[in-house]
Batch of 4 targets.
Target 1
Amino acid sequence: MNLSCQSCGAQLVVAETLRTTTCPYCAAPSVVERPPSRDRPPPTFALGFVQTPAKAKELARQNLLRRSFWAPSSVRNASVEELRGIYVPAWLYSALAESDFSASIGENYTETETYTTTENGRTVTKTRQVTKTEWRPLRGRHTEYVPDVIVTASSGLPNDELEHIEPFDLRGLRRYHDALVAGWITEEPSLAQEQCMEQARDEVTAYVKKRLAAFMPGDSHRELSFSTRFHNEALVVCLLPVWVMALRHDLQKPPLRFLVNGQTGKVYGRVPVSWVKVALAVLLALLVAGGLYLLFSSK
Ligand SMILES: [Zn+2]
């Protein structure tokens, strides 16, 4: 059956037996039935779940404990309120990126410099070695095929959160088949293709920038600028296995959302900061600093 979250916009497809009244992404109780969507591209590939629910819980728990130092103490005892495996839709983008670049390349050289100084009341002339940089302009073209850029197609799972549980090992991709996802919650792409395409191009541009910076010749460079054109762009939908977990640590507060990469087990979740703990630590640091100051200044 087809469901839609009125809160985050996720477009879910679940089996009758998995019928849910709360959104697995945002926990909003505003999930309504919707007619099956047309004109949405069907997934081309899917990546299977490897981590079991028990393993996902354990990994999230370890992650939470490791990071609970600055968190309210209730966080250590957070319990898993809800755990759902979701096939999250993402765009798999690849393109040939052709970039024209220009930069100033610095070459270092040493020079012997003569200078005068005063020694024992007399003016003397001495020499020393100094390093100088000569700058020359460089222009060029860099072409590179960039495969496998993943951007979210889900309005329930923002791209920056998905990036935290990347990478996925895409060697495990299988051609999509209904049987692959039977019994799981799947989501249909709920973000527009053009919007995701822009996001993918931005990611490629950021990657190209790093690559260009890495292969600049010389001892240093500055004023690196480039413009990139994209050729042979390919964009297909794939389904990625993600465990979405709601961890309750305080009945008065919304649950913490943890994500576990269903393939690699990589965990991401925001842990709240206890400002009382931070304030106490700052106070303690000030006291120690003040104590040390008194100790040394009294000598
Ligand atoms: Zn939602």
Target 2
Amino acid sequence: MFFLLVFLLVTILFYWLSCIYFNPGDFPTYPGELPLIGHLHLLPSNSIELWNLIKQIADAGLKIGNVILVRFGFFPVYVITDPDDCYKLATGTFHKPEIVKKYSKDIMGNGLLFGPVSVWKSHRKLLNPSFNQKVLDGFMNEFNEQSKVLVKELENAVGNTPKDHRSSFERSALRTICATTVGVHINGNEIYSDKFLESFKDILTLLTKRFTSIHYFCNWIYERTKLKKEMDQLLKFTHDFTEKMLQVKRNEIANAPREEIKFLDSHYKPIIYHLLENENKTLSLEEIKDEINVIILTGFETSTNLIIFVLLLVGTYPHVQQKIFEELEEVFGDSDRDVTKADLSKLVYIDAVLKETSRYVPVVPLIGRVSTEDVQLKNCVLKKGYVCILMLYAILHHPMWGPDADQWIPERWLDPQRLPANPHAYVPFSFGKRNCIGKTYAFMSLKVTLAHFFRRYKVFSNFANVKLKMDSVVLRPYSGYEFCIQYRNK
Ligand code: HEM
């Protein structure tokens, strides 16, 4: 009894001191806060509940105010839903929250996505030219080849029963990322196995498990868990794969006559050349592997989810599918020729479908930042040192999109009057200098894939059945995402 009383008194004292120490200012709080624990009791136990909670917090932010507070025990977090406020933060603050860095360290080390600002600044500067339009144009051939492999592979999936086609699209996205950014073809290559793909996906699921189990925050506990053992096994698998790819590329460069490697003297070259030529100069081997892991993980998982969402939505709305067919007929006629760079700008409706899908179901619905200085926003000041959640999902469903913000309408992108005037309204790839380095890559490769896919096939689905979950930072469907693929002209 005595100990319980002491424990209670100490907790209250600690809470009182923390209220003085952690004083983020006077902001509306997300409903459901309890004394001492704040919103900790709402912490979900799995990735499905996590997405439901995020969506509810985003909706509350849009209703209650531009900035609201969520308290994880003693630690308050700012949740920001106003586009201009988010823009201000994202363009002035490059630090990511410590917890994210801590949890992702084993997976991506100090790679771009969650690396410390000091490393990120120099690596981003080094890698930006690799995502220049000139380099991306050079990938068109590979985008076409990989899309044709996918379309051929899907012949086996044609039928009247809805099926889970996810793995075909995942394999295709992974093959494309490896062939373009690392310059290694994994099709039929012994270094690749489907176990590798599974490992990458499972890593994200385990990461969410760790995030939603508060006791795993403590390294001492986490190090002793089954979860950690599983994670280590998966990581060994994915890191081995990266290492083997690097080895293949190194040998290729070493054995090819210099004049055959056309990129060597150019400032604009695929990422692998930038990385390898800086090995042991500005980059260590570890840093090179980290960057490759980041590019592969961020690239294939996001692109797969976006294309799956596109097919599920297009299959639900036959009039949209019809317009896609018409556009493809206009640009390609009856031909199944490769998509050229010039074709991409003519695929205006497919572009609208991609934009609207990435707005409606943003694959990365939120991002985090921590400011090292107080930040003046439109109506308030955020104090330095606190985690800020920038709710991209809320911005993409903000009332500025109009009364139909919660509907999927590709046509809105064809009429400037239907789009918000605010330049920070469309943010599925984030904003500021730490935005997505692969956004143009993603749209180019997906447009090519869709142009090949819809010249051959049509899809049938029902988006109303789709249920979503949040695996680490990525929004994925977890049920109801089966659909039918049928030949168009048979
Ligand atoms: C549908 C596709 C994609 C979406 C929705 C997406 C979204 C995002 C978002 C929102 C961020 C910013 C995170 C932040 O501000 O904290 C990001 C960062 C990043 N993305 Fe993407 N991404 C996509 C595709 C790709 C592709 C294809 C690649 C590579 C080929 C890629 C590579 C990266 C990298 C390296 C970063 C970290 C950038 C940095 O911190 O400097 N992404 N992505």
Target 3
Amino acid sequence: MEKTTKGMSRRSFIGMGAVAAMAAGAAGLAGCAPAGGDSTAKTEDGGHIESAGSSAPSDVHIHNVTDTSWMTPPAEVTDFAKEWDCEAVVCGHGFAGITACRELAEQGKKVILIEKQPEDTYAAVGNEFASLNAKILQERGVPHIDPVEFYQNFMKITSNMPNPTLVMKFAQNSEENSNWYLDRLTEEDFATMTTAFFPPTEHQMGELSGIKFWPSVCSFYGECNQTKIQMYNQAAAEEAGAEFHFATTAEYIIMQDGAVAGLVASDADGYIKINCKAVVCACGGMGGNPEMMTYFMPDMAQALTGEDALTSMSANDGRGVQMAYWAGAHLETTPVAGMNMKGLAVPGKMNCLPQAVWIDENGRRFANEYYPTSEQRGYQTVFMSRKTKYAVVDNNFTEYRQYTLPQHAGFTANEENIASLRDS
Ligand SMILES: Cc1cc2nc3c(=O)[nH]c(=O)nc-3n(C[C@H](O)[C@H](O)[C@H](O)COP(=O)(O)OP(=O)(O)OC[C@H]3O[C@@H](n4cnc5c(N)ncnc54)[C@H](O)[C@@H]3O)c2cc1C
């Protein structure tokens, strides 16, 4: 028997829905999902009382989703140490920011990118990305994906909730954009790139009850990592005329007569006024801001019990969303999609359990253990008591464990991993 642990909690995080199509690499369990839990399993139930006829905890308390101090803009800055001019400012050097900056520069716009982190310690987040039909994948024999089929599958597994235009845009442009993003990599760089779950292991599956899975990620766990690739894109943007300022933080957008007129930023010297016509808010998510997570994920926030917490591996504080909101942008009203079961951390959280037979504290089976690991499957914790759950296996475990799906935080059933499983 293997106990669930609450160790996942600190390492769960928010991300983009697009990652649902990706899967993982090193040492069997991988990807950007938590790859393990604390070895100290929490066995007490934390004092929760179950209500009769229901396995849901009865002491669910409502978190205050009306705590909205982040909606208030900061006081206007009038004293500036510097003033810059350009057409567009990009805030954030992450995947969204660096690609927006390069694109704008290549279109001939005068663009400035500002990034909060210092240049010498700057690091991109994550290692691998989902790609439909990138040239490098096709060359290596990774199966071609029909963008429309991908779109239909995506909408199906997300209950038709996402913005369909965005999902289709991703599906139809993934090939071209992946090739563009990777166009400066050398052969040596590509030599360190792998594709999780490809080539497939002997009993790897591609479908579960009508839901499709594709092994189609560009995994950069080697010498060429995402930081290096972002820097290649920075070089391309610089060649096209873009300017970069690290250790510079976006504060708020200056609006004039309902239109963007500039951005207030800050660095070690003080405030900077940047006069421009457009601002790209690419400051990442809000995983470092519990108040905003509570507001944007009320479904999770209101399911929290005494020991639960919304946690994330990200330090981003939601400033990009705040700046857009203060400037008049409309906030999405549906709960925000979050990765790894929306960052909910509970003692009975199950995303590290292997595919075996799962039972609850009463010995009852309660879920389809095969369902995609960390995202959808973990969500079922919400409906359960917070008591320890168990994965029951027999001596044939290492045999049936070979029937796997290529999925985020999935298991690569190669000989080495199976042997290590047998040992453990
Ligand atoms: C630990 C971890 C591992 C992950 N692994 C993967 C993976 O393997 N594959 C995958 O597809 N996804 C992964 N994800 C999710 C993925 O990293 C995010 O979806 C992606 O980084 C989002 O891109 P972005 O450009 O919107 O934001 P980010 O990449 O977070 O970039 C935002 C940038 O803005 C900067 N910034 C923030 N505030 C300001 C400000 N006020 N002014 C200026 N700059 C600011 C930040 O420092 C940061 O550099 C992972 C996430 C985490 C947290």
Target 4
Amino acid sequence: MTERALSFDAVAEQYDTARPGYPPALFDTIETLTGRPLRGSRVVDVGAGTGIATRLLRERGADVVAVEPGPGMAARLRLSAPDVPLVRGFGDALPLADAAADLVTYAQAWHWTDPARSLPEAMRVLRPGGALALWWNVSDRAVPWIAEQEARLREDAGGPAHGAHGTGTRDRHLPTDPRTVERRIPWSRRVPLDTHLDNLGSHSVFRVLGDRATTAFLTRERAELLRLFPDGTVEESYVVELTLTYRPTGPSTP
Ligand SMILES: C[S@@+](CC[C@H](N)C(=O)[O-])C[C@H]1O[C@@H](n2cnc3c(N)ncnc32)[C@H](O)[C@@H]1O
């Protein structure tokens, strides 16, 4: 798992430029659910990668610390968000003090952790009453071309196209606290075909497939998508799947 979890390092620049961000509605929803503005909040963004979510949290005025294990991803984050403190480490053993954060976030990264460890670690680092927010950009399979692309990828990957269109609910190992809430936030972006293919190719499933199979797949996808989007602009549709839970305010933590 660790090797694949850190496979993004090989494609850090491509990841940073081609992966989608997250819509303002996601951050509005987190503020509404927690009843607290991000501005001035102490946020720990775990599995921060190249800083896609970190930068957006920072733009909302949060006081963010990024945690990232991968050297390539961390190097890119240092360039893209030089003023954000960055700690090298894993969510399973956070190198941070107890009760140091109002909010711990995992943007597309929770599924790489061992939740038996990462959940108590997040609770330890949160102040009592603080919130843990996990989210994923999941491709909207209700859109026919996205469902068809996933079917082609499944065929090539010889099994579940894990990760290429978002991991969805099945891999999450979610917190079971009764106050846990889930929200689905649809959004879309229009990008050049090259950006879409770079985005697709930055997923970990392609590190497993290898260069030759990846090139063959992406070449076929280009031809397929040009038929659908002859002007070369692809509309990617997503649903952000958000799960938010809290550290209890009582003396014990789960
Ligand atoms: C799909 S990327 C998400 C990056 C970023 N949060 C974003 O929204 O683009 C997953 C990140 O999790 C990191 N990662 C892998 N295993 C991890 C672990 N056990 N704890 C924390 N981060 C981990 C990877 O190095 C990678 O940067």
